[in-house]
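Issue 218. Parser rejects a valid record. Input:
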Amino acid sequence: MINKIEKDHSRFRQIVKGRIRKDLRKFLTRGELIGKEGKHLISIPLPGIDLPHFRYGDNKNTGVGQGDGEAGQQVDADGEGSAGGGDEPGQHILEVDVTLDELADILGEELQLPRIEPKGKHNITSIRERYSSIRQTGPESLRHFKRTFRRALRRMLMTGMYDPDDPVIVFERSDKQYRSWKTVKKPQSNAVIVYMMDVSGSMGHEQKELVRLEAFWIDAWLRRNYEGIDSRYIVHDVNATEVDRETFFRIREDGGTKISSAFKCAKDLLDSKYAAEEWNIYLFHFSDGDNSSEADSRECCAMLKEHLLPLSNQFGYCQVASAYGSGAFINVLREQLADAENMVTTRVNTKDDILDSIKAFFAKGR
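Output the parser choked on:
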């Protein structure tokens, strides 16, 4: 019975994953899912999954409560009865808890993303205890109940002690099985993600919502590939400053734009805390493509070429659509740094473009 339940549960999880994969673009672009994030779990509403249920008796479409009744008969209420209740099934929605790791795996499978190979320059060997075997002795807290029960049942059946009319299983010392562990040394590759966002007057709520959704799934994918992740956040208009995650997505937009200020802030952060020989570095900049001057755009390209790109696994620039931005910066990057292999530029005009942008960022598995 236990094995059957486990098989049914496993099959149900596969059905859930299939439904998520089928509508991945819809689910991953719904902001409320991010708000439901708990301790590494997200609740996803899935319509159209029929759960098994029991149906007792056969009332032949008649009867009210526990007595007999006729269609349209009044039931403990004033007024006339109607011509009967509806006979169509309702649309039931089931909320399923899915781990972020499961969602990241589905994301990787659907977008055909390769597993990222860390540079391995920040390798910390962590010691872990892994429960991977069974032994005959151990503390009762580690007793493997299913294996113990199975051995006791087998012994009682073989010796004729089992009574189907009184199915009591008595454990003997020789029946007991205990989980055992071994020490595992596991390399731990760490990475830092630096998110930079333009918060000038042309970056409104809609643009920041696109950034928030894409940053969340970038974070989820990279955390699936690395044991440890540091996420840092920089906002800028004509000046740049490092902020916490909440401020990054909630700060009000205002002022002009000087993109080089963000790149300088990122460089200072990396120089002071994240040596390239020890960390896998990912930089992502989000903007509507408007900049204060062509001279500043050229300075940005020089900083990327001389300082940031040589340090990074990848620099990703995502340009979100805005009615107020010029949108020229992405063209400057593509012209000036066309030969930069670890730079990827994408455009996100609507939520539907987010998955394509993520695929472009990680298609080469850097």
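Fixed in the parser; the record now loads. The radius of gyration is 29 Å.
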